[in-house]
Amino acid sequence: MPRLTDSLTARQQALLRSWLPDAEPVRDHSWGLVGTRVLELRASDGSAYVAKAGDEADHHIAREIEAHRRWLRPWTSRGRAPAMVAADADAKLLVTRWLPGRLVQADRSEVDPGIYHQAGALLALFHGQSSVQDDGQFEGRQKAETLAWLAADHRIDATAVSALTALVERWPTPRSLLVPTHGDWQPRNWVVHDGVVGVIDFGRADLRPAHTDLGRLVAQQFRKDPSLEAAFLEGYGADPREPEAWMRLRVRDAVGTAAWAYKVGDAAFEEQGHRMIAAVLAELDM
Fold first, then answer.
1. CA dihedral 242, 227, 109, 49 (to 10 degrees)
2. Of the residues 58, 75, 97, which one is the last residue of a structural domain?
3. pTM, rounded to two decimals
4. Which of 281, 228, 221 is nearest to 251 (CA)?
5. Half-sphere exposure of 214 toward its Cβ, with a 13 Å CA cutoff?
6. Can you tell me the distance from the alpha carbon of 239 to that of 272, in angstroms, rounded to the nearest whole number?
7. Rounded to the nearest 10 degrees, what angle do helices 158-169 and 243-264 cross at?
8. Whole domain around residue 158: which residue ranges?
């Protein structure tokens, strides 16, 4: 019977044995849409760990390692995120402590305003640790990436592609205040243990405007229940969204969601992207 570690490279397996010599893999938590492997391990003393291993195409492990080294202390020092044990960016391998709890996504806690209040407060703590002003690089990248997604293979309606391309080509590229962001801030990356919210998965962490971490929530949970948004913003302490920059992000997220999900074969997520596109087109009267 194949072992859970058989999908790792020889170098990744050797590193894992040297870092955790008596730990055995007990469960595969990989999403399956990309090549990253996420393995839960248990040591003989009962300690639990997570090993994340990237394949040749992976570009998330390095980001996650960087996040652990630069930005996670406000959370790890409070026990709200897993602490790093060992990492090798060249080998695309990261090991952290296991953060106890159950995923908020698809759990009864996903509709609990108190969870969102905690998530807002956690995000404010993360965003507030540092900031830097750019010279338009973020907005320039967002513009280029959106045009690239529109030109890629996807199932976005041709009329919508034409209208959105014309819109994005007119986008300005103003300066932005960048802060450490999670990059995929939503209930599938929150865990709750004894009523306390923790955070996992930092493969998209980067310096961005604060409002970018609200994109997934607005497209999903907040759309269904506005009380969750109110609780989140109360916990966060303010609303970081500036209308024009926020609309540009919504367009970018909508197009990127539909095109990326088509690329990896995630039909449900692709449908969400098409719904997001329809929403922004209706709001822009296009």
1. 10
2. 97
3. 0.93
4. 281
5. 25
6. 24
7. 140
8. 103-283
